[in-house]
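Worked example 3 (structure in, sequence out).
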């Protein structure tokens, strides 16, 4: 019987291919695979345990003086307590307007690297974040996070690929445009172009009219916290509140505590801040209730400075929203977390909104190396432990499209780098003609006498063409948003400062470089946009070659032209000679390096606006503090400022005349950053965006297959037809209409 059983088992083993007689043995490879899987699961478990839940609260237009711990008249008990128990960031910077700040938060890159240098993204513009660029929620989702966004987006929505749910967020509830009514959720992009703007994921959230937006957003945030399991997966929640942006609408119960404020706009603005405080109280209560708080990081930040015209205050800082003065870019922020190693303190470390990308990805255990070209730094050791900040400088922006005002003279006429008169030409002046686009006119004698060929400058050969044109037009090459223009080699030697070494990436002088009559100009649009081209006529050549001792070339010539070759000189000599420029100071730019801050071009309205304590608006209190009278001549337009922000945070003492060495050093840094800038992408309005064509709501209007970015080929330039239409508009009528609406709204909102 036993023999028969053995034979039967042997037959079965042969039939099924299984060895039934020998005991089962695990192979060595299987054991190794099991060990690896066990180790990976344990590591994943520890990683999940160490990954904190992240709550980022972003407010809109909250100024430096619009929070309780800076101004006791503003009642924000919740924010004050969270900040006091955490770390107050008192040297923290954002951008002066909405879209650039939000883009730098989500990408970790300066706006010169995203094409959003110029302005905000308006509802009708076919623009958004670059499609090839990764975002913060995408990196956190790769690290295992559940990502959600509630509130204001304002980063473009012309196609579905631009929506928050396509940029890394698992869910989205809020508005896509920049300014929405708090109750009706109506958003307008000019007269008669209005639509409904409240969205749930990728659909329109109809039927929410009458509900206050701050309350509605808070309820959605609490719902997300309630439905999510904190032990199962870490959470990233971006609560981007619409408050305290205009319109100044808030429930009357929040206005009552500020009834003693004489100024109506300030009273309603303060009430909006109180609604934010209550929203933060409700959300942080939900964190504690549902088990998030012990392993959470709460970050509170504004997106830009306040607008005093609408009740905000940046006092005692200079400037306002939309400017590069401290009032426009120094933001209110703090971090609250049980994970902080050093709490209840004030941090003076230099931080920027781009730093949140690498900081939060690193805190979540993500891979920062996948995100190339980041401009931010991981500053968690700085915030948590009080270590020195790895950030030493901030590029606030370089905007080549911000044109100077009318009546400004170019460098050949008056100004030096610090606003001083360095050269004083008598007859031959190169002036900007406001009525002509990119056109320049040269004033010459009535009967110019023919002269023999002038001797060329050293290493500079210019061959005039046969035909003379006194009004050449400047042409630039533009690029699609997704393409970066090739880097140019600047043929100017940046001065070296005593005691400091010049960065390795700074451009070097290339001797022996000869030019031709039709030498192509470098494609760097930033420095090229506001400079006159090389002269083409003999008369123009005489203007450039006649003077040998005072100047060789115009200080506002294209910095990237290969024709310009300058001998090596001492920094002081370079400062005193307008023939050896470093940067076109008519371009709007701002940079912070260490204690020093440099502004060029037009940084914006630079008044110090005191607290709005008087009943009139903007009336008498607006005149309490005006800009300090300029010491240079009225005919000279100042376009460069230098401040020691550490010693002078209110920017009351301009040191550009006293410290030309620092000016040159910071101008060289602007040149360095400008070499990496991409083409500005600022397309025209698309009539297809009209909400009337989409059921009365703002929704994406471009198909995914359509190449909208390449359609406009970069920067939009209005044609002659559009220009004629613009002339027909009555500017005075528009101004009267604006003040009429402003006065009507103020009187209707008066309590």
């Amino acid at each position: 019987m036993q023999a028969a059983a053995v034979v039967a088992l042997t037959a079965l083993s042969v039939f099924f291919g299984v060895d039934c007689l020998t005991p089962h043995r695990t192979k060595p490879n299987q054991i190794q695979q099991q060990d690896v899987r066990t180790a990976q699961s344990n590591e994943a478990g520890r990683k999940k345990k160490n990954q904190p839940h992240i709550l980022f609260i972003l407010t809109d237009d909250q100024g430096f003086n619009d929070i309780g711990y800076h101004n006791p008249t503003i009642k924000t008990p919740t924010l004050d307590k969270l900040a006091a128990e955490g770390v107050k960031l008192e040297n923290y910077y954002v951008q002066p307007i909405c879209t650039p700040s939000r883009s730098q938060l989500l990408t970790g890159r300066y706006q010169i690297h995203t094409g959003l240098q110029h302005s905000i993204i308006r509802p009708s513009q076919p623009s958004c974040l670059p499609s090839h660029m990764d975002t913060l929620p995408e990196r956190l989702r790769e690290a295992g996070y559940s990502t959600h966004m509630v509130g204001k987006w304002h980063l473009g929505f012309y196609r579905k690929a631009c929506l928050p749910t396509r940029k890394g967020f698992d869910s989205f509830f809020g508005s896509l445009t920049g300014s929405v009514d708090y109750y009706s959720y109506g958003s307008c992009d000019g007269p008669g172009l209005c639509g409904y703007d409240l969205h749930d994921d990728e659909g329109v959230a109809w039927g929410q009219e009458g509900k206050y937006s701050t309350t509605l957003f808070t309820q959605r945030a609490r719902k997300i916290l309630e439905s999510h399991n904190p032990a199962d997966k870490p959470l990233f929640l971006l609560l981007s509140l619409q408050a305290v942006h205009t319109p100044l609408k808030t429930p009357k119960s929040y206005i009552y505590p500020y009834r003693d404020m004489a100024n109506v706009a300030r009273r309603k603005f303060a009430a909006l801040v109180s609604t934010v405080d209550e929203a933060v109280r409700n959300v942080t209560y939900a964190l504690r209730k549902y088990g998030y708080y012990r392993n959470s990081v709460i970050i509170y930040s504004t997106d830009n400075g306040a607008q005093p015209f609408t009740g905000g205050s940046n006092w005692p800082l200079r400037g306002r929203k939309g400017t590069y003065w401290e009032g426009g870019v120094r933001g209110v922020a703090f971090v609250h977390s049980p994970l902080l190693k050093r709490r209840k303190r004030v941090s003076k470390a230099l931080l920027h909104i781009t730093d949140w990308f690498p900081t939060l990805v690193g805190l979540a255990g993500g891979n920062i190396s996948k995100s190339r070209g980041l401009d931010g730094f991981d500053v968690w050791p700085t915030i948590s432990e009080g270590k020195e900040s790895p950030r030493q400088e901030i590029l606030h922006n370089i905007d080549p499209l911000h044109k100077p005002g009318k009546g400004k003279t170019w460098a050949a006429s008056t100004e030096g780098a610090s606003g001083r008169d360095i050269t004083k030409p008598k007859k031959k002046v190169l002036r900007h003609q406001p009525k002509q686009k990119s056109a320049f006119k040269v004033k010459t004698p009535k009967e110019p006498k023919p002269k023999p060929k002038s001797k060329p400058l050293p290493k500079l050969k210019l061959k005039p063409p046969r035909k003379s044109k006194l009004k050449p037009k400047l042409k630039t090459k533009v690029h699609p948003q997704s393409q970066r223009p090739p880097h140019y080699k600047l043929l100017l030697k940046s001065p070296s400062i005593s005691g400091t070494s010049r960065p390795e990436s700074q451009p070097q002088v290339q001797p022996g470089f000869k030019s031709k009559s039709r030498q192509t100009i470098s494609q760097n649009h930033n420095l090229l946009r506001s400079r006159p081209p090389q002269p083409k006529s003999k008369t123009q050549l005489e203007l450039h070659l006649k003077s040998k001792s005072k100047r060789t070339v115009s200080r506002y010539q294209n910095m990237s032209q290969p024709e310009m070759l300058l001998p090596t000189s001492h920094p002081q000599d370079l400062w005193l000679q307008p023939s050896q420029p470093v940067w076109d100071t008519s371009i709007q730019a701002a940079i912070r390096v260490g204690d020093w801050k440099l502004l060029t071009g037009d940084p914006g309205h630079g008044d110090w606006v005191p607290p709005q304590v008087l009943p009139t608006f903007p009336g008498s209190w607006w005149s309490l503090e005006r800009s300090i009278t300029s010491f240079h001549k009225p005919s000279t337009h100042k376009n460069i400022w230098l401040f020691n922000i550490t010693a002078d945070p209110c920017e009351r003492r301009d040191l550009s005349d006293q410290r030309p060495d620092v000016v040159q050093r910071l101008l060289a840094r602007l040149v360095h950053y400008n070499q990496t800038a991409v083409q500005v992408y600022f397309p025209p309005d698309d009539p297809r965006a009209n909400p009337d064509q989409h059921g009365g709501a703002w929704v994406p209007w471009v198909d995914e297959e359509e190449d909208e970015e390449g359609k406009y080929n970069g920067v939009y330039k209005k044609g002659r037809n559009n220009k004629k239409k613009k002339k027909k508009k009555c500017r005075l009528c528009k101004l009267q209409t604006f003040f009429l609406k402003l006065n009507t709204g103020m009187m209707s909102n008066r309590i």
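Notes: The chain has 19 helices and 20 strands. Residues 732 and 738 are 10 Å apart (CA to CA).
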